[in-house]
Amino acid sequence: MSSVSVEPVTRFASRAAVPLVVLAGLIAGTAAMLYTGAADATLLNDPGPSVRFGLPAAKFVFNLAMSLTLGALMFALLILPRTQGRKVGRKGGRSEEGDPVPAPHPLWEKALKIAEVSSVVWTVSAAAVLVLTFADTVGAQAYLDFSGQLGVFLTQIAFGQLWVLIVGLVAIASVICFGSRSYPGIALAAVLGVGAMIPLALMGHSSAASGHTQAVNSIGLHLLGVTAWLGGLFVIALLGAKLARSAELPAVIERYSSFALFAFALVAFSGVVNASLRVHDLDDLTTPYGMVILAKSFATILLGLIGFWHRRFVIRRLAAAASARVEFWRLIVVEFVIFGATMGLAVALSRSQPPVPQEPVGDPTPAQILTGEPLPPPPTFARYFTEWSLDPLWVVISVGLAIAYVAGFVRLRRRGDSWSVLRLVSWLVGMVLLFYVTSGGARVYGEVQFSAHMIQHMLLVMVVPLPMVLGAPITMLMRATTPRTDGSRGIREWVLWLVHTPWLRFFANPIVASVNFAGSLIVFYYSGIMWYALDTHIGHELMILHFLGAGYLFGQALIGIDPGVKRYPYPLRLLTLLITMAFHAFFGISLMSSEVLIEGDWFGNIGADWGYTAIEDQQEGGAIAWGIGEIPTLFVAIMVAMQWATSSDREAKRVDRSEARTDDSELRAYNEMLQKMAARDTETRR
User: ∠ at Cα 188 (182, 191), nearest 5°?
Assistant: First the structure.
């Protein structure tokens, strides 16, 4: 089959991409809303059919534009080559240093054009969703004083404030898409775009209802996975013939396929977690809501099978066989139809009432008012390992990083390179500890007990980072991945860029890392910041991220081997460790002797009656803060001493080899110098 026969299929896929998704989504979404009753008029205060059908349509366009914008930015940042290695202009442009400036790659430029257009649609659709959400919330009364009530909704109602934040983030990202062609600028636009998903996830579940953490994080992960998967597929189709004729087609598709595989796993996992909160048993699956979930699950599995077919049978033949290219573009057309239907079903589900109520329980206990969850049973040593509350975000991070490290280890071994098994075991231990601290008993009881919160905190900052540091993940990444040579940036290039940025090198400085490690304790517990970590979802996740990062940078400065960190001589490392741990012990003692309850509005009102008061529990937390630090401190001190001894042995062997090569020339020269000095002294005395 000639290459010309590929063109009609390519053109059709490129031109039909958006219409196919919209048509399939419209049909599937409307049918699902009619089936579940989401399109039915309410008995009281109905906003009208324009809102009942207009809001889902606006959300569908919003989701579509979000996927396309972030997918195009993903391609520009992680997949497509930025330059094509030729000079700009007829005579060739030059940089300030006089070097030739490579011209932007046409595919890269087109991806950014796609981001520009879709970001405008995203901004407009976000504003439309905001207004229609107001009308849907207020109902028919919204039309009595539309502008006045809208102002109140946007400024005083949390739901409206979140949508104002979304519109603002999307609008700023759109402006950056038009105004920047640098990697940092495009990365900032992508960060703002992903940041707009956070309010979306927060709005998807009541903070006072059970399973808030699971719901919010699973929704966020689901949005991220669908965006990378569908958005990337959209970009491939819209690049169309230009990509089909390009020599980069096999490499681009292979890179996207890797992201799509991760996105599929993310969508499947987060979908199961989210569905489990709304459907509890088989009877719930027989309801209209449950049937739509089954249809959406079937469509997702079908998309996964098509992706498997791509990876297993199509991608490897793209460079050599025109028939493979025809098959590839035909499968993309099928994927668009299924994706459109899946997005329509998702919008219908968001407008439908699940069989399991999502509202807060009636007559809640004090613990349910504060945390949204029932009070766990009295803590025992065994229950710290049997009580679990999975955090989907950190499950994905810990399991994903463990799998990635094992994959790198296997790749190195197959290539014939060596990598320490102890480093592999160390990294896996770190991931297991991270999984436990963020989802196990320490997290469960950390929401209701100061002492348990201190256990979680100390494990995060002092225990979990140490095996991670010894695993040397940056070094593993550099050795296990192939550098990009075509003008694009992959995960390897971005991580190395991040490691060598001035601001990260600043925080990785041993003095700054030590101050951050120890000083964060005082700031967190005595400044009122702790309340936000207890009361807000984002505050809790940022707390985990900060203390894990602080402990990791401190460990890197003392016992790490990865690049990007300035490390002091070994005596200074031991001195830094001792000073920091002395400050840490002082913090624990201050808590043990304190008579003032920290965050008393939370721990004093949690309603736990387990035989001791909140202030006694806080003092116990101080003892834990002091006690937990002893073993990690001793371990780090031993590691520093061992590295010092190893370094001294290595230096001694180097000197011995140098002396053997030069036949002790330095020593003889030194002795001859002493003899000459002695001879001069003798002549002087004479």
Answer: 145
